Amino acid sequence: MIPVLIAGLAVDTRSQPVVILKPLDDEVGRGRILPIWIGGLEAAAIVAGLNEVSPPRPLTLDLMRDVIQSLDAEVERIEVTRLEEGTFFAEITLDTPGGERVLDARPSDAIGLSLRTGTTIWVAEEVLDRAGIVMEQDVDEEAEVAAFSEFLEHVDPEDFQG
């Protein structure tokens, strides 16, 4: 498992939101990025978490965090575990008074929850190997963003199907 950070959110040419993960140890302009296509509502929830927005009423992921905390549990780990037929899978590991519990989750929900709990996101190396995009070395940030935008114009989520 490789620890990652959210490098950004983008929209592809079909107006489909994409969350972009990047290994923590990779330098800007080097290494790999992992695009995961998500829904519009999930993107809005991630943006709210990134911007630390506190809505007047709890959103679903805020409620999830509050329920977990009220049960004296905590989110121990968020993992993007596998890629099957173009679909990413994730797990949320909880540390509860009754022991460790692992829950199946959509990556978008797991990522959004990680932002609300301060939990590190991990990606299976096999997932990065299959769906990660290698960034060219020695490019500046503007060139990196331009190159990724160009990539999004020509890529289709089906390209990542196994």
UniProtKB/TrEMBL annotation:
Residues in BFN domain copies: 1-135
Pfam family, one: BFN_dom
SUPFAM superfamilies named among the record's database cross-references: Hypothetical protein TM0160 (SSF103256)
Gene3D superfamilies: Bifunctional nuclease domain (3.10.690.10)
InterPro entries: BFN_sf (IPR036104), Bi_nuclease_dom (IPR003729)
Recorded GO MF terms: nuclease activity
Protein name: BFN domain-containing protein
